[in-house]
C-alpha cells in the first residue's frame, strides 16, 4: 500500500525522494507526490499514475530544498486524483500518511464547527487541517502535531514537514510501520527499510504509539504516553534490502526462479543435518487445537498445512481468513495454538486476528518474511521464512517458503505428540530436503508453459482442480492467475466439480488439473474425464506415471518430477506460478504491479 519517505539531507532532496519512492513502487500505488522546504519555504508537487509522471512534472517545475517528504498513494478515501494525492497541505503544514484515519468524519465535523472546510475527499487532509488549526491557536509545530495525534483513531503512519522549519520532520506510528534512518548529519524516515537502503543501514523502528521529532542532529522518540523512549538502532543487512531485477524482465520472474535457493536456505535453517530445528518453546504436546489464520496466498499456505497437521500430528486444525476470524470472535481455549502466516507481517486483518488471540490461546506463532514486522513482534514466537525481499505483488517465493516452514512445524507437532514414527519422519525430512533440486527441474517447464500461455491468454474463464493438499494449490493457482492476468479463474476441489462448476465447461474453458500420481489420482482422473466428455480443454500437470495413465485426450500436459505425496503442493506451485506469469506476459499486463493491488495490505 502507500509508501512514505522523508529526508533531512545535505544535498538537493527531490531526486533522492523520487528515487526512494521508486523503491517503494512494489507496494502498489496510483499517485505520488513530494514536498520540500527550501530556505524556510514549503512547496509540493503531485501527479497521478506512475512515478515518471511526477519526474516529468519536476523537470518542468523543479522543487529545490534539502529537506523533504514523499509519498506513493494507494487510494482508499477518494479517487486517484492530483488533489487527493499526498503530501496534503494546509498553510504551514504538509503531511503524508499510510493507513486510515477511522474517525475522519467526526474530525471533519469538528473542523467545520471551527469554520474549516476540507478541499479533498481524503481522510489524510484532516491531519493537516487539525495541525494547522492548533498552530493558528498558538502552538508550535511539535505541540500541534502531538495535539493532532491525540485526536486520531485508526491505523496510521504519519510524517509532517513544516513551512519555516528546514530542520524538522515529525513522525508517528500507530498500526502502520515506520523506520527512522540515521546518516552522518542527515536523517531519514521510511515506511520500510527498503526505501532507506541506499542511504543508510542504521535503522530505528518506531514502536506502536511512538512519535518522534527528527532533526539532522538525531531523533527524539516518545511513547504513546508521551514519555521519552529509547528505541534500539539496528544495522540492517543491505543485501536483504536489495530490490534489483537481476537481469529478469520482472521481479515476479526473478522471485519464481529464486525458489530453489530460498528453500535450500530455509532447509539449512529449519532442517539441518541434526533434524528439525524449531524454537524449544514451540511445543505441541499439550495443545488440543491448531488455528491457522492469514489472508490471500498466505491463507492458501495455511490450507495446505491443515492437511499436514492433521496427517502428521492427528490434531484438529482450523483455518480461517483473518478478516472473517477477527469479527467472528470465535471461542478460544488455552490449549489452542494460533499460527499467523504473513509475508509482509503487516496485513491489517491478520494483525487484528493475532491481537484477538494473544490473551486467549496457549501460544501465538508468526510465520513471516519480515522479522521486524508488527506481526512478528507481537506474536509469542516468530519464525522467519527467510525468503528475502519479495517485490512482485503476486506472492511466489514467500508461498513456498511459508509451506516449507509449516511442513517442518507439522512434522515437529507429529513428533511432540508421538504420532509419527522415526522411519516416517526420516522419509518426510528426506523428501523436504529433495525439494530444491525438484523445484529446479520444474523450472525447466517455463518454456513450454510460455507457449501454452499464448492460448490461455485468450480465455475468459479458467478453472483449476486439485484434490487433497492439491486443492488449496488449485485455489492458489487461480488467485495467482486472476491477480496478474485479470482472467477470471476459480479453484475447486476436484470432487466438487459435479456439484455446480461443471455447468461452466465447454470448448472455451481451460481446466488446469494439478494431480501427482498419488492415492487420489484415479478419482481426479474421473473428474478430468467428465470435463473432457464435455469438450473441456484439459491441461494436466502430473508426473510421468500420471501422464502415462491419463495424458491421452488432454489439450496439453506438463510432466512434473516425482515427489513424496504430502509435499506435492510445494513443487506444483512452480507450474501454477509460471502459468500465471506467462499468461500475464502474453496479455501484456503489469505483472509486478497489477491494477488495484497492493503488496502489503495495511488497511482493512
Ligand atoms: O503479506 P501477507 O502475506 O499477509 O499478504 C496476504 C495477501 O494480501 C497476499 O498473499 C496477497 O493475496 C497476494 N497478492 C497474493 O499473491
General description of the model:
This protein is α/β, with parallel strands linked by helices. The protein has three domains: 3-240, Aminohydrolase, N-terminal nucleophile (Ntn) domain (Glutamine Phosphoribosylpyrophosphate, subunit 1, domain 1, 4-Layer Sandwich), CATH 3.60.20.10; 244-420, Glucose-6-phosphate isomerase like protein, domain 1 (Rossmann fold); 442-590, Glucose-6-phosphate isomerase like protein, domain 1 (Rossmann fold, 3-Layer(aba) Sandwich). It is built from 20 helices and 24 strands. The chain has an eight-stranded antiparallel beta sheet with strand order 3-2-4-1-10-9-11-14. The chain has a six-stranded antiparallel beta sheet with strand order 5-6-7-8-12-13. A hairpin with a 4-residue loop joins strand 9 (179-182) and strand 10. Helix 10 runs parallel beside helix 11. The longest helix is centred in the C-terminal third of the chain and has 20 residues, at 397-416. The radius of gyration is 25 Å and the shape is globular. The protein starts with a strand and ends in a 17-residue tail after the last helix. 55% of the residues are buried. The model has no long low-confidence stretch (mean pLDDT 94). It binds 5-amino-5-deoxy-1-O-phosphono-D-mannitol. The site of 5-amino-5-deoxy-1-O-phosphono-D-mannitol has 16 residues, from helix 9.
Amino acid at each position: 500500500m502507500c509508501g512514505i519517505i522523508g529526508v533531512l539531507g545535505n544535498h538537493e532532496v527531490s531526486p533522492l525522494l523520487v528515487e526512494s519512492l521508486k523503491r517503494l513502487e512494489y507496494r502498489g500505488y496510483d499517485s505520488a507526490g513530494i514536498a520540500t522546504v527550501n530556505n524556510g519555504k514549503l512547496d509540493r508537487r503531485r501527479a497521478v499514475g506512475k512515478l515518471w509522471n511526477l519526474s516529468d512534472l519536476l523537470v518542468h517545475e523543479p522543487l529545490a530544498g534539502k529537506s523533504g517528504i514523499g509519498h506513493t498513494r494507494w487510494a482508499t478515501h477518494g479517487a486517484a486524483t492530483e488533489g487527493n494525492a499526498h503530501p496534503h497541505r494546509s498553510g504551514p503544514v504538509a503531511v503524508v500518511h499510510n493507513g486510515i484515519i477511522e474517525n475522519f468524519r467526526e474530525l471533519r465535523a469538528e473542523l467545520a464547527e471551527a469554520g474549516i472546510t476540507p478541499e479533498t475527499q481524503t481522510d489524510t487532509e484532516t491531519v493537516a487541517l487539525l495541525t494547522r488549526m492548533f498552530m493558528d491557536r498558538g502552538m508550535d509545530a511539535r505541540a500541534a502535531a502531538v495535539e493532532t495525534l491525540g485526536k486520531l483513531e485508526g491505523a496510521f503512519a504519519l510524517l509532517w514537514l513544516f513551512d519555516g522549519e528546514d530542520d524538522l520532520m515529525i513522525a508517528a506510528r500507530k498500526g502502520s510501520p515506520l523506520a527512522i534512518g540515521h546518516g552522518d548529519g542527515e536523517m531519514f524516515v521510511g515506511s520500510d527499510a527498503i526505501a532507506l537502503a541506499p542511504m543508510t543501514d542504521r535503522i530505528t523502528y518506531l514502536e506502536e504509539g511512538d512519535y518522534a521529532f527528527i532533526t539532522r542532529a538525531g531523533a527524539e522518540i516518545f511513547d504513546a504516553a508521551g514519555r521519552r523512549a529509547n528505541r534500539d538502532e539496528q544495522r540492517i543487512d543491505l543485501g536483504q534490502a536489495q530490490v534489483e531485477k537481476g537481469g529478469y524482465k520482472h521481479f515476479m520472474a526473478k522471485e519464481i526462479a529464486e525458489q530453489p535457493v530460498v528453500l535450500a536456505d530455509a532447509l539449512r535453517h529449519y532442517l539441518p543435518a541434526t533434524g528439525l530445528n524449531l524454537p524449544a518453546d514451540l511445543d505441541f504436546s499439550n495443545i488440543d487445537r491448531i488455528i491457522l489464520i492469514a489472508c490471500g496466498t498466505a491463507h492458501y499456505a495455511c490450507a495446505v498445512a491443515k492437511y499436514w497437521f492433521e496427517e502428521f500430528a492427528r490434531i484438529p486444525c482450523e483455518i480461517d481468513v483473518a478478516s472473517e476470524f477477527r469479527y467472528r470472535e470465535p471461542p478460544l481455549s488455552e490449549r489452542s495454538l494460533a499460527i499467523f502466516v504473513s509475508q509482509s507481517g503487516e496485513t491489517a486483518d491478520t494483525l487484528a486476528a493475532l491481537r484477538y488471540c494473544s490473551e486467549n490461546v496457549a501460544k501465538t506463532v508468526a510465520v513471516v518474511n519480515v522479522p521486524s514486522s508488527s506481526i512478528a513482534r507481537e506474536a509469542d514466537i516468530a519464525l522467519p521464512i527467510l525468503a528475502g525481499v519479495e517485490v512482485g505483488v503476486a506472492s511466489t517465493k514467500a508461498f513456498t517458503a511459508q509451506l516449507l516452514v509449516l511442513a517442518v512445524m507439522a512434522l515437529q507437532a507429529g513428533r511432540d505428540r508421538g504420532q509419527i514414527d522415526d522411519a516416517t519422519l526420516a522419509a518426510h525430512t528426506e523428501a523436504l530436503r529433495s525439494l530444491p533440486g525438484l523445484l529446479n527441474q520444474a523450472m525447466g517447464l517455463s518454456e513450454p508453459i510460455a507457449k501454452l500461455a499464448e492460448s490461455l491468454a485468450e480465455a475468459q474463464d479458467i478453472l483449476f482442480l486439485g484434490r487433497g493438499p492439491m486443492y488449496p494449490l488449485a485455489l492458489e493457482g487461480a488467485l495467482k492467475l486472476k491477480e496478474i492476468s485479470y482472467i477470471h479463474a476459480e479453484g475447486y476441489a476436484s470432487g466438487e466439480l459435479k456439484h455446480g462448476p461443471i455447468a461452466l465447461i465447454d470448448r472455451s474453458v481451460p481446466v488446469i488439473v494439478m494431480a501427482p500420481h498419488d492415492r487420489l489420482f484415479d478419482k481426479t482422473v474421473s473428474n478430468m474425464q467428465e470435463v473432457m466428455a464435455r469438450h473441456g480443454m484439459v491441461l494436466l500437470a502430473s508426473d510421468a506415471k500420471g501422464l502415462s495413465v491419463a495424458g491421452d485426450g488432454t489439450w496439453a500436459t506438463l510432466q512434473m518430477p516425482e515427489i513424496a505425496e504430502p509435499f506435492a503442493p510445494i513443487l506444483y506451485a512452480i507450474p501454477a506460478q509460471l502459468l500465471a506469469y506467462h499468461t500475464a506476459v502474453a496479455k501484456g499486463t503489469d505483472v509486478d504491479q497489477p491494477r488495484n493491488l497492493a503488496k502489503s495490505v495495511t488497511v482493512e
